[in-house]
Amino acid sequence: MPGTLVQLNVSPGGIPKTPVLFAHVSRDGLAGDWQKNRKYHGGPDRAVCLFSEELYAELRDEAGIELIHGAVGENFTTCGIDLNGLSKGDRLRVGDSCIIEITNVRVPCSTLKKWDARLPKLIEGRSGWVAKVIAEGTVRPGDAIEVLREVPKKRRSDTKVKAGTT
């Protein structure tokens, strides 16, 4: 069963990223989105950052941290996709034509401490993913997200990493 792109977020640099009604997703990331520190954020292998409603709910329920979507700097706020069940190399189709490939675990940034000093440590192991763009497309909130298992298993066997572990 496909998940859903609940919110699409961009920023001229920094957090929170704010919602937009649609965005073209290219190999450089989302139109209208930029990262101030390009050494650690953005670039072709980190063009899109994903975090889920389920992870926001865990933070709220387990630690009492109430955050708005986009607060942790994600471009795609998802629902119904088990981000912790994904691996490097997994591909996701978002909407009709956009395909992204998971490239790495999203490393929690110390800037997250602006919301709560515990936040970077709390999201280790469940921090989401970054991805490169395989096929460009325009996406919007409400679009379906389908997990594609196109990468051969022999290439993926040594890349199974839980989101947030290194």
User: SS-based structural class?
Assistant: mainly beta
Specify the CATH architecture: Beta Barrel
Whole-number mean pLDDT: 86
Q: Round the Cα radius of gyration to an integer and report it.
A: 15 Å
Query: Terminal Cα separation, in Å?
Result: 29 Å
CATH class: Mainly Beta
Report the CATH topology name: M1 Pyruvate Kinase, Domain 3
Described by the principal axes of the CA atoms, the overall outline is globular
Unreliable residue stretches: 154-162
Give the number of helices: 3
Question: How helix-rich are the residues, as a percent range?
Answer: 10-25%
Query: What is the spatial order of strands in the main beta sheet?
Result: 1-6-5-9-8-7-11
- What proportion of the residues form beta strands (DSSP E)? 25-35%
- The domain tally reads 1
How many strands, what sense, and barrel or not for the largest sheet?
A: 7 strands, mixed, barrel
List SSEs in N-to-C order. Answer: EEEEEHEEEHEEEH
The tally of strands reads 11
CATH superfamily: PK beta-barrel domain-like
